[in-house]
Amino acid sequence: MSNEQYAFLRRSDLPARESLQSAIDNTPFSLTLDPAFDTASTSGFVPCTICNVDSGVEIEFDDSPELIDQFRHMTGDRDCCLVFRWGGDIIECTCAMVLSYTLAEHFDAIVSYEGEPSSDRTVLRDDTIAIHKDAKLVLQ
Fold this sequence. Notes:
Shape: globular
Radius of gyration: 14 Å
Largest sheet: 6 strands, antiparallel
Mean pLDDT: 94
Number of domains: 1
Number of strands: 6
Strand content: 25-35%
């Protein structure tokens, strides 16, 4: 069974790969995006390097009215979404968490795990720190 996390953004705030990587570099997390990653057209597995280990996460750009309208009550005027999917792999989960946190912190994304109401950024940050710490232990 896969897990899904949504990062809803305004299209005008959707970062290019370089801007997203720069924002990640200004967090306490070690994650490097694949140079070919394109936020506005991605659909599938996106390779990442996290804590110097190759991994990644499935990411899909979605601006369909069906998805946006389904979550409108939580997302306000945001009109596109990056959907992160992963299985039971903690490293892939960590990639999704770091990317989601960065999008929330630097690009005003509203993040929802499995369609649940969004947590505030402090909770998202703390959850990301915890999962990143667990991933580093697994990778040692």
